[in-house]
Input
Amino acid sequence: MSRKSQVLSFKKEVIRVATSDFRPLLSLNLFVMQTSQELIPHLFRTEYSKITAVLAKLFGFEHIEIAEDIASDTFLLAAETWGIKGLPDNPVAWLYTVAKNRAKDHLKHLNIFTGKVTIGLQQASSGFHEIEIDLSDKNIQDSQLQMMFAICNPLIPAEAQIGLSLRILCGFGIEEIADAFLTNKETINKRLYRAKEKLRYEKVKIEFPAPSEINKRLETVLTTLYLLFNEGYYSQSQNITLRKDLCFEAMRLNYLLIENKSTSKPAAYALLSLMCFHASRFEARINQKGEMVLYEEQDTRLWNRELILQGEFFLNKSAKGDEVSKYHLEAAIAYWHTNKQDSQEKWDNILQLYNKLLIIEYSPVAALNRTYALSRATSKAAAIPEAGKLKLTSNHLYYSLLGYLYTDIDNDTAIGHLETALMLAKSDKDKAMILKSINKIKPGRD
Amino acid sequence: MKEFILLFRSAPSDGPQLTPEQLKDVSRPWQDWIGSIAAQQKLANIGARLGFEGATVKADVVTDGPYAEIKEILLGYIVVKTGTLEEAIELSKGCPALSMGGNVEVRDIVQMNS
Output
């Protein structure tokens, strides 16, 4: 199996995560992958973060590097051993056993020479030989969730939260993270190091927040997952596989939240619903040349129906209680976009949702989208004065919107705005899109 | 940036109760107006819509209802943040109360020092 099809089957499996019966599928995938070269990268993605989370929970956040080292060592040993002896019957169980033994050895070693780590241990009183390293599904899930709360901490910058999540919760390599952030390994290493130091210094614990605090802490976790998803969805990175991986990882982590009773809050369902709707358009929004395809021009046959249905399912689940978060509103907007057919009802609803979204939280993108929705619900002429009030004069999207609104009303003005947009746009992708709009108005030019 | 409260008043309507569908039609211009202010990043506080249950209390007498002696009642308020009074006045020109024959009072908010 090629790396591509392997990634693809991984993708399918993550999509299944959003349905209830993904476990049987997981083992099916393992069954298909028969050689260690195929299996190890796959298992690394799924198991590295689990082992790290459980061990870090046991050792305490201050010893997280030890947990990461043991997890890495386990995979190194797997690569060596499986290559020679062939695959064990149950590769996952094999990894867990090795990780457990390594962890116990490490504790024994430390206990003899320094007695240091045991102080940090939760079960310190019982001594290392009785320590149970619990790699049951339940403890893995709990540890991963608790790790999520430890990492998604407002004490460290959002970028560092995303970076640490990718490393510790998703098993991403430093190079991949650097790629996603369009920077180099050194920068990422420094960023992660500083973030870990800060969390250690603040004595952050790997634990569930108190029930009275859960909503507030969950807000930070959801924000990080939202940013992680957007990093993949809107990134300028040319690596499309990596961008999709970021999105699916955000979805997987979000799914962990809704699987747990104390974190399956309406806002968590709403965010997952939003991600499903967006992800449903993956194949349609980027063409074979890697260029963005505008919503209006997308081939709806490429939209993933299954993800749309899941989005609807989670949106319904999110409708419990009175809380209307920005994720509810964004998911509802995305829901209306799953039907490309234009109708007055559609645009009226989208406009009202943007009104509400802006009332909860202003953002330039929401302001621009609201004005676009207004033009669709009423007319371009009616939206022009509203657009003028936004005054987002350093934003190329603002001039692109003005260009769109003036098209067919006053084409010279439209071209003027689009040329300003072209001047302000930074990425080649954006510039190409704007040029396309200009050329559409000037049919003579090419 | 200064904060201004926009108080909107209009004659009380004593027409029949509105159906949910009609209510939606009535609230839409309000949503659009407030959404437009929010889109300009000038909304400080969504404020509130006022109901019809109430009384007016004076030193010696309590009168039923919010509108004993005046033709216009307070419908509600929002708070905006703008650089100048003129900007706040400009925003209030889109208030749906105006097309109902009502008016908007714009007042600056003075922060209380404790």
